[in-house]
C-alpha cells in the first residue's frame, strides 16, 4: 500500500472549488484578514472555526489560532470525510467530491513565510502541542497520517486527535507558495485549468 505524504514534505488544505477565483486574486487568507471575502464558501465546521478565533497559540507572541491559515499533513482529512458523507449535516453541509479543491504546498516553502507553527494534533485541543522548529516534525504520528488511519476501534481514542495534526501560516499564503491544485474529475479539472489560463493571460498583458 502506498503511503500518503511518504516523504513528509507536503501539507494540504481543502476548500470549495468555487473559492479558487478569490484565491488566485488574493492568495489564501485567514478568515479575519482584510482581503477575506464575505462570499467565500466555508466548508468546515463553523463551531470549530469560531472556537479557534479566540484559542491562543501555545507559543509566546503568536496570537490566536484563528489568525492562521491551517493545513493538514494529509489530503484525506477527517473533515473531508465528514463533508463528503454528510456526517455533520446540516451544520457541515454535504458536498460532492467534484466540489472539493485540494491545495498542496511544500512545508519548506511555507516555512519561508512569516510566522508559522505546526501541531501534533488538532490545533485547539487542550493536550495538543505547538511547535515552530521543523526538527520537531518527528513528533507527529506519521504512521496514522500516512496510513489514513483515524480509527478508534482498537481502543486508541487519541488517534483521531493526532491524525489532525496541522501546519498553520499567519494570515496569508501567496499563490506562489501553492505547489499544486488537485481535483476529483475532468470536469473540475477543466474548470480549474480555465481559471488558471485566464490568470496567466492577465499576467502577460
Q: Give me the secondary-structure category.
A: alpha+beta
Task: Report the radius of gyration as a whole number of Å.
Answer: 17 Å
Strand order of the largest sheet: 3-7-5-6
How large a portion of the residues is in β-strands, by DSSP E?
15-25%
Taken from the alpha-carbon principal axes, the silhouette is globular
Helix content: 25-40%
Number of helices: 7
Q: In this structure, how is the largest beta sheet organized?
A: 4 strands, antiparallel
Question: First CA to last CA: what distance?
Answer: 47 Å
**SS elements, strand count:** 9
Order of helices and strands: EHEHEHEHEEHHEEEH
Uncertain stretches of 5 or more adjacent residues: none
Provide mean pLDDT, rounded. 94
Structural summary, described in words:
With 205 residues, the chain is α+β, with helices and mostly antiparallel strands. Strands 3-7-5-6 form a four-stranded antiparallel sheet, with no helix packed on it. It is 27% helix and 18% strand.
In short:
By secondary structure, this protein is of the alpha+beta class. It contains seven helices and nine strands.
Keywords:
205 residues; globular; 9 strands; four-stranded antiparallel sheet; 7 helices; alpha+beta; three-stranded antiparallel sheet; single chain; 27% helix
Secondary-structure map:
Blueprint: E1 10-16, H1 20-26, E2 28-29, H2 46-52, E3 68-72, H3 78-85, E4 100-106, H4 107-110, E5 116-119, E6 130-131, H5 142-146, H6 159-163, E7 166-170, E8 172-173, E9 180-182, H7 186-204
Antiparallel strand pairs: 1-4, 2-8, 3-7, 4-9, 5-6, 5-7
Amino acid at each position: 500500500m502506498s503511503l500518503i505524504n511518504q516523504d513528509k514534505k507536503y501539507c494540504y488544505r481543502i476548500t470549495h472549488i468555487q473559492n479558487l477565483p478569490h484565491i488566485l486574486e488574493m492568495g489564501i487568507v485567514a478568515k479575519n484578514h482584510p482581503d477575506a471575502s464575505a462570499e467565500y464558501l466555508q466548508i468546515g465546521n463553523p463551531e470549530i472555526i469560531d472556537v479557534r478565533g479566540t484559542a491562543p497559540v501555545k507559543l509566546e507572541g503568536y496570537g490566536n489560532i484563528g489568525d492562521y491559515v491551517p493545513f493538514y499533513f494529509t489530503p484525506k482529512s477527517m473533515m473531508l470525510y465528514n463533508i463528503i458523507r454528510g456526517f455533520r449535516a446540516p451544520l457541515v453541509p454535504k458536498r460532492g467530491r467534484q466540489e472539493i479543491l485540494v491545495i498542496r504546498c511544500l512545508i519548506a516553502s511555507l516555512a519561508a513565510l512569516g510566522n508559522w507553527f505546526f501541531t501534533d494534533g488538532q490545533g485547539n485541543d487542550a493536550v495538543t502541542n505547538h511547535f515552530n522548529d521543523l526538527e520537531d516534525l518527528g513528533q507527529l504520528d506519521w504512521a496514522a497520517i500516512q496510513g489514513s488511519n483515524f480509527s478508534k476501534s482498537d481502543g486508541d481514542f487519541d488517534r483521531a486527535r493526532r491524525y489532525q495534526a496541522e501546519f498553520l501560516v499567519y494570515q496569508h499564503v501567496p499563490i506562489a507558495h501553492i505547489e499544486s491544485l488537485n481535483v476529483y474529475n475532468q470536469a473540475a479539472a477543466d474548470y480549474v485549468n480555465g481559471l488558471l489560463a485566464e490568470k496567466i493571460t492577465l499576467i502577460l498583458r
